[in-house]
Amino acid sequence: MTNGSAPSLLEVHGASLGYGGVPVLRDLSLRVERGQRVAICGPNGAGKTTLFRGLLGSLAPSEGSVERATSRFGYLPQSERLDPLFPLTALELVLQGAISRLSGWRAFSPEDVATAEELLGSLGLGGKGATLLSELSGGQRQRALLARALISSPEVLLLDEPTSGVDKAAAQAVFERVDTLTRERGLAALTVTHHYEQLAGHVDEVWWVSNGKVEVLEAEGFDPAPLLGRGLSDQSTGAAF
Fold first, then answer.
1. What CATH code would you report for 22-72+154-236?
2. Looking at the predicted structure, is the pLDDT value of residue 91 above 70?
3. Can you give the pTM of this predicted structure?
4. Using 50, 70 and 90 to split pLDDT, how confident is the model at 194?
């Protein structure tokens, strides 16, 4: 669990999140600290994406507040949402994460390019900068997406189903890199997952999203099966969380 006396990066106070005046999640009280690793789990359709949008700031709360002590967020989308046939190289993909640094027609600086190449190398993609996305495996594309999320030196990293469409080894490479960043830089990592068993050794806290609420649970010994079994969501098929 979090330490209430430590400085926080994110604090959610009595917030409701939804669309068109209809709340999906209600009365949220959450806290994210530096170096914290959170798994966001729950039945399909329970509101995990809505929670992500509220934390990122793309969805304003209808009640309560979401307080951010940083504006430095990184986002790792599902690799399945990336069109591998788009004519983009791995290096160009990573540099997309540094676009906010550009002004006018200025090109990326040699420092930006060097940072992108260094990130690719640290994720096992050294020498792959000029490789087209179509020539990378699913796991390699996911690691390139992680490099893109990290090039802006975020303080909060949000990962959306990072194991979707990749093998176990590729998933572990992503989680181990994130673990290193949480230890060495104090990065906070929040991961939405339907495959908690792959993430279990890389989590400090679990947020269980169901029936319009978010329940904060200890990661040690966490098992999603009983939660699904007690029917926390009338939208759950029981097939995934």
1. 3.40.50.300
2. yes
3. 0.85
4. confident
**Tokens at residue 46, please?**
């329970």
**What is the predicted pLDDT for the residue at 232?**
43
Q: In what order do the strands lie in the sheet with 156-160?
A: 73-76, 156-160, 188-192, 37-41, 205-210, 213-218
Classify residue 77 as exposed, middle or buried by CB count within 10 Å of its CB (0-12, 13-18, 19+): middle
Q: Please compute, for residue 199, the number of CA atoms within 13 A of its CA located in the half-sphere on the CB side.
A: 29
